[in-house]
Amino acid sequence: MRRLRTENPSFYTCRKLADSFGCSPSFVSYITPLTPSRQRAALAKRDREHEKARARWGEKASLIREIRRKRKEFW
């Protein structure tokens, strides 16, 4: 499991390895964590994809999201 994950983490995701080995994805992520550089790259990729989706939002959804963000600042 560790060898597969370190060879190609984009192909051998936690979900895929968990299904193959019959365990939970959280167990796979605990046993085979990504290196910090790969983790940063994965998070950056996820953030780019989220930004693309947010760009398609309408005015109302953007306004609601902005209001929520400001409300969280006051917590």
Low-pLDDT segments, ≥5 res? none
Proportion of residues in helical segments: over 70%
Main beta sheet = none
Strand content: under 5%
Shape descriptor reads elongated
Mean pLDDT: 92
Number of helices: 5
**Number of beta strands:** 0
Helix and strand element order: HHHHH
Write down the Rg. Answer: 17 Å
> Span between N and C termini?
42 Å
Summing up helix and strand content along with how strands pair, one would put the structural category as mainly alpha
Q: How would you summarize this macromolecular structure in one to three sentences?
A:
With about 80 residues, the protein is mainly alpha-helical. It has helices at about 1-5, 15-20, 25-30, 35-55, 60-75.
Sequence-ordered SSE layout with sheet pairings:
Blueprint: H1 2-7, H2 14-21, H3 25-31, H4 36-55, H5 59-73
Explain what the structure shows:
This protein is mainly alpha-helical. The chain has a domain at 1-33. It has helices at residues 2-7, 14-21, 25-31, 36-55, 59-73. It is elongated.
Identify the notable features of this structure and list them briefly.
75 residues, mainly alpha, 5 helices
